[in-house]
Write a structure and sequence with these properties.
Structural class: alpha+beta
Largest sheet: 6 strands, mixed
CATH topology of the largest domain: Nucleotidyltransferase, domain 5
CATH class of the largest domain: Alpha Beta
Number of strands: 18
Helix content: 25-40%
Number of domains: 2
Radius of gyration: 20 Å
Organism: Pseudogracilibacillus auburnensis
Number of helices: 7
Pfam families: PilM_2
CATH architecture of the largest domain: 2-Layer Sandwich
Protein name: Type IV pilus assembly protein PilM
CATH superfamily of the largest domain: ATPase, nucleotide binding domain
Strand content: 25-35%
Shape: globular
InterPro entries: ATPase_NBD, PilM
Length: 324
């Protein structure tokens, strides 16, 4: 999304409020993957995607650099889901394509508004023969700079910041043997404390929605410390209710996409499921009961003859950035 330089060996980092996952590769493919790693974050270090305890995060990352010999490595990371805002805008016909970013920059705070100051953004052209339409993905510069400065302080070299939905889609394309351009793919990523929904059609992101679950991180405990496997120890009935609420939300979003965005002319054709929540198979069963649509869990092919858990899919998508 926002690129700062070229890459050789790269550490690709995914940061959730409760865990960090990393993949090291040569910056463009998975055949060059050196290792995967997963480490649980100290509680209340990252909250809602924001670094709230900079000292603890610094010390945590400093130890990771030492443990995995990452000093002076280049780094890519995702903007936390919570911080991404998506806007679709129409650019006046008189504005030339090479002036679009300048136009948007001038209009931020005037005709284009975000719930934060000083946004950093990237834009994606939409296929419309009659109008100059673009999708803007923006994030607060202040929060991204916090991550970049901490990485700099521990001798890591940030080269790019990406959007996780784009990385997951990138991995999906790599994993697919046959892509069907007429299909509309809804990606549902269910994690321990959040649900992330994105809709793609013809390689364009058309919808993004992040929603925090009404589940406390304290209700999840490590069932297996070595392999970082989680077990829910809270109210199971409440958790099942949260899952049901998310399925109802998908109903609303698919109807919104079909009738409000595309006036009944386009609808979701496939649901792609991923995430680190242990109940993902149960969610798959519920989705199949509700919809007469293919529901496909996104899985990981064996890499270097080793099994890789689905939790690493976003990190693998980031590792593919820059490849073909």
């Amino acid at each position: 999304m926002f690129t700062f330089g070229k890459s050789k060996r790269v550490i690709n980092i995914v940061i959730e409020d409760y865990v960090i996952r990393m993949v090291e590769n040569n910056g463009k493919d998975l055949a060059s993957m050196k290792y995967l790693a997963e480490k649980v974050l100290p509680p209340d270090t990252i909250v809602n995607g924001k670094v709230v305890d900079e000292v603890t995060f610094y010390e945590f990352m400093k130890e990771l650099v030492r443990e995995y010999s990452m000093k002076n490595r280049q780094v890519r990371f995702y903007v936390p889901h919570e911080l991404i805002i998506m806007r679709e805008i129409t650019i006046p016909d008189h504005v030339l394509k090479n002036e679009w970013k300048q136009y948007i920059t001038m209009e931020i705070g005037q005709s284009i508004h975000f719930p934060f100051t000083n946004p950093v953004f990237d834009l994606y052209e939409l296929p419309d023969k009659n109008e100059q339409k673009v999708t803007i993905l923006a994030a607060p510069e202040e929060e991204i700079i916090k991550y970049i400065e901490i990485f700099d302080d521990i001798k890591l070299k940030p080269i790019a910041v990406d959007v996780q939905a784009l990385g997951v889609y990138r991995y999906f394309l790599w994993e697919q043997e046959r892509f069907q351009s007429e299909k509309v793919y809804l990606f549902l990523e269910l994690n321990l404390t959040s649900a992330n929904i994105s809709i793609f059609h013809q390689h364009k992101v058309e919808f993004l929605r992040f929603q925090r679950l009404n589940v406390s991180p304290n209700d999840w405990h490590l069932d297996d410390v070595q392999s970082v496997r989680w077990k829910f120890t809270g109210d199971e009935t409440f958790l099942n209710g949260e899952m049901e609420d998310q399925l109802n939300e998908i109903d609303r979003l698919m109807n919104f996409y079909r009738f409000s965005i595309h006036r009944g002319e386009k609808a979701v054709t496939d649901i792609i499921l991923l995430g680190d929540i242990p109940e993902l198979d149960h969610v798959k069963t519920k989705l199949k009961e509700r919809y007469e649509l293919p529901v496909t869990p996104l899985t990981v092919k064996n890499l270097h003859d080793q099994e890789v858990s689905r939790e690493f899919i976003p990190a693998l998508g980031l590792a593919l950035k820059g490849g073909k």
